[in-house]
Amino acid sequence: MPVSVSVPDEIIIRRRRRNGTANLPDMDGYPFSCPIQVRWRDLDAFGHVNNATFASYLEMARTEAWTSLFGGRDALAIPFFVKRLEIDYRRPIDLDDEVRVWLRVGETRGASFTFEYTVEAGGEVAAEAVTRLACVDKTTGKPVPIDPDVRATLETLQPS
Amino acid sequence: MPVSVSVPDEIIIRRRRRNGTANLPDMDGYPFSCPIQVRWRDLDAFGHVNNATFASYLEMARTEAWTSLFGGRDALAIPFFVKRLEIDYRRPIDLDDEVRVWLRVGETRGASFTFEYTVEAGGEVAAEAVTRLACVDKTTGKPVPIDPDVRATLETLQPS
Amino acid sequence: MPVSVSVPDEIIIRRRRRNGTANLPDMDGYPFSCPIQVRWRDLDAFGHVNNATFASYLEMARTEAWTSLFGGRDALAIPFFVKRLEIDYRRPIDLDDEVRVWLRVGETRGASFTFEYTVEAGGEVAAEAVTRLACVDKTTGKPVPIDPDVRATLETLQPS
Amino acid sequence: MPVSVSVPDEIIIRRRRRNGTANLPDMDGYPFSCPIQVRWRDLDAFGHVNNATFASYLEMARTEAWTSLFGGRDALAIPFFVKRLEIDYRRPIDLDDEVRVWLRVGETRGASFTFEYTVEAGGEVAAEAVTRLACVDKTTGKPVPIDPDVRATLETLQPS
Q1: What CATH fold (topology level) applies to the domain B32-155?
Q2: Chain C closest-CA separation from residue B36 CA (Å)
Q3: Where are the domains positioned within chain C?
Q4: Which pLDDT score, from 0 to 100, does residue B75 have?
Q5: Which helix (H) or strand (E) holds D69?
Q6: Beta strand D99-109 with D112-121: parallel, antiparallel or unpaired?
Q7: Is the ipTM of this structure higher than 0.90?
Q8: pTM summary value
Q9: Chain B: which residues have CB within 8 Å of chain D?
C-alpha cells in the first residue's frame, strides 16, 4: 500500500495517451507522481523533447515532492544539491504526449540520498532515472549528515 | 459572450493564488486561456521567472490555441513564424504562483495577424503581450496572404 | 567615433558567415557588442533558434555590458528589472550562423532606461530589439530614480 | 599524443579562471574540447548553472565534435539518439567561470558508442559525464549497427 503522502492536486492534461495498450508497469512502488505539461520549447530540432529537458522534468517532480513533504517554498531552503544524475532513455516524448514523472526515495545514507524516477509518456515508459542529492552545510558548503527529521520525512517516500 | 471555442481540458494547478483581492480585470474579451505549470527551471538567479521564459509561456498558449483551432499536431504544419514580440512586464512570477495565459486574436491583415495575451499570476496581471505572426510560403519562405479558411478560423478567437 | 568602452575579449566563433555580401548596416552607432555561441538546445522543432531564445541572447549581451561597465559580478546587485521587451525578427538564425548582439543605451529617464540591440547572424540583421529596464528600491521593490553615477556610466554606451 | 583531429577555432572567453592552483588533471586523453559561453539564463535560483544545463553543455560539445568529424550540418542527419546520460557533479559553475567541455569517444560496439566528458570550470573539474548514443534506422526507428565508416571516424576521438 502506498504510504500516505499528500500528493498535489492533479494537473489534468488534455493530451492523448498514444495507445490503449500501454506497456507501463505497475507503478505501486512510487508513492508520488507529478504530471508534466510539455511545452513547444521543450522540443529540439528532432521534434522530440530534448534529452536535457528530461532532467528538468525530474527536477519539476522533485521540487513538487519536496514542497509537498516540507511544507511550502521555505522548504527549498534546506541545502541539498544534485551530486549525480543518471537517465536511461526508453522512447522519445512528443508534444502531444501525456507525461507524468513517478518518484520515490531510494536509499538514504550518511550525507546523501537518492530519488528514483520513471518518466511516463503516452502510457509508456519514456525514461528511468536516478538522482543522488547531497546535503551540505550552508556556511561551509561541505557535505554534512542529513538531519534526522529530514531523513524520516524523506523515508515516507520510500516504496512500502 | 465568449465565442464558442473548444477550450482544452483544464490543467488544474495546486499553486496558490497569492491574494484574495486580485486586481485581475474582466477577462471576458479573451476567448481562450491556457494554464501554465511553472517549473523550477523557469526561475533565474533573481528567484523569479526569467523574462525570456514569459515568451515561452506565450508560445505555450499559442501552440495550444493553434492545436485547438486546427485540430491536432498536423496543424503545426501551417507555416507561420513570429515576426514581432512585445511584452510589458507588470509584476514578477514566483514558483508558487498559479499562472494562466489569456489569449485572443487581434487584427488579421494581408500576410500577418496578431495574438494578444494577458499573463495572469497569483490572480494578478503579470504581463501583457502581443505577437505578430506572418504567413510564409513553405517553398519560397516568402510572406504570402493568409489562407481565407485559416483566417476565418483565427477570427473565432477575436473578442466578441 | 565609438565611446571608449572596455569591450570584452572576443569570443571568436568558428561558425561561417553565410555570405560575403552581408546586408549588415554600419554598426558604428553601437559601442558594445557580444558574440553569442549558438547551441543545439537553442533550436526548436522548426530547426531555427527559437523566438524566446532571442531574448536570452539579448540578456547575454546585456549582462556582459553590465559587468563590463560596473566591474564584476557584484554589479548585478544593482536592482534593475526588465519592464518591457520588443523584438522585431528579420530572419531566422541557424545552428551554424555566426551571431553577435550589438548593444547601445537609448534614452535614460527618471527611473528607467533602454538598451537597444541589433542581432547579427551570418552577416545579416536577424533581429532588432529594445528592452526598457526599471530601477527599483531593493527593500520596497518600488521604482526609484536611477543613481546619478549609474546613469553617467550607462550614458557612455549611448551612440556618440 | 593527441590524435590529429580538426579542433574548431577557439572560442576565447574573457571569463576568469578562478584560481591559479587549479586541480584540473592532465587532459591529454581528450582529443577534443569545446569552450562554453555561460549565459545568465543558465543559472537557476541558487545562482549556479542548473544541473540540467550541464546536459546542454555536453550536447554543445557533442554537436561541435560531430560537425567537426563529419563535415558540416548535414552530418546531423546521421540518425543517433541519446540512450543514456550520466553526470557526476563535482563543483558548481558560476556565471563568471571560464568553462570548457573535454570530450573523447569511449567504447564503440554494435549499435551504440559512448562519449566521455570532463567539464572544466574555473580551472577545476566541475563534472564528469558519459553519454551512450545509439544508431537507429531512419525509416524503422530500430537500432542498427553503426556504419563502419562512421565508426572509424568516431574512433579518431578515442584517447591515443
Answers
A1: Thiol Ester Dehydrase; Chain A (3.10.129)
A2: 16
A3: 32-155
A4: 56
A5: helix D51-70
A6: antiparallel
A7: no
A8: 0.88
A9: 40-41, 43-47, 50, 52, 95
